[in-house]
Write a structure and sequence with these properties.
single chain; about 280 residues; mainly alpha; 2 domains; 9 helices; about 65% helix
């Protein structure tokens, strides 16, 4: 139930944060060009105004805003105008609930579970925004990085659950950013094109800060394999052209969450299989 409630808030973040950033960028562009700033209009942030139907602008009543249940009761349509409600909203709520349940099952109740809740929530929000806008906002990636580094101060010796040890977290943050930055520069040198955005570097750095540098190869391998498989499948189905960019953030986020729960066991089994354990 806690996960459902947080998932409902993450839907607000996914929808509103890019719009808030666009307003800021328009105001900054107008200031640089010496033009009058666009009219501010009503206050718009993650709290104000109340949630509204995007089709008819009718305020959503509290009884119609109960996570998951309201969507089912309303048949996936607005109570006022009967316009379809995007399936993304209940999916985000359900995904957050399942992610939180898996975290509680894996880590029990304590500092590790609380930190894993935070990490999972950030990953879900970043995934939703990157899918919608191909954007990984600094307003999310940078706090996630710093929370991971600060949380590493609570690491206990022999602790496999989050947070990572401070040295591993610092090295992970540096290595995560630098590695993808080098891949970006090499790809641009060879092709003359930009293969990914700077938000991917920052997200990978944040993942390194949370999980430690030891998990970065596993995260990158899983993300690359799943991303390549999905991309090839979509091109084969002719739903995606070769020149259409695919957001990499969701694959990094999904791989990081898998590594959060099962990373040490996956690495240990691979090393045993390879005869290196």
């Amino acid at each position: 139930m806690f996960g459902l409630a947080i998932g409902s808030f993450l839907n607000v973040v996914i929808h509103r944060l890019p719009l808030m950033l666009e307003r800021q960028w328009r105001a900054q562009a107008a200031d640089l060009e010496g033009r009058p700033a666009p009219a501010a209009g009503e206050t718009y942030n993650l709290v104000t105004p109340r949630s509204r139907c995007p089709s008819c602008d009718a305020p959503i009543r509290a009884i119609h805003n109960i996570p998951l249940l309201s969507y089912v009761a309303l048949g996936g349509r607005c109570a006022a105008c009967r316009a379809p409600i995007s399936l993304r909203y209940p999916l985000v709520e359900l995904a957050t609930a399942l992610a939180f349940a898996a975290v509680a099952w894996q880590f029990g109740f304590g500092i590790s579970a609380a930190l894993a809740f935070v990490f999972s929530a950030y990953l879900i929000a970043l995934t939703g925004i990157d899918v919608d806008r191909q954007l990984l906002p600094d307003l999310l990636t940078m706090p996630l990085l710093w929370i991971g580094l600060i949380a590493s101060l609570w690491h206990a010796p022999g602790m496999e659950a989050p947070p990572a040890a401070l040295p591993d977290a610092v090295i992970g943050a540096i290595a995560g950013y630098v590695f993808l930055w080098l891949v970006f520069q090499l790809f641009r040198l060879l092709t003359g094109k930009e293969g990914m955005g700077y938000g991917d570097f920052k997200l990978f750095a944040a993942i390194g800060a949370w999980l430690g540098w030891q998990m970065l190869p596993l995260v990158l391998l899983l993300a690359a394999l799943v991303g390549a498989t999905v991309g090839i499948a979509m091109m084969a189905a002719r739903r995606l052209g070769r020149g259409v960019p695919i957001p990499f953030g969701p694959y990094l986020a999904g791989a990081a969450w898998i590594a959060l729960l099962f990373g040490p066991r996956i690495v240990d089994r691979y090393l045993d299989f390879a005869g290196l354990g």
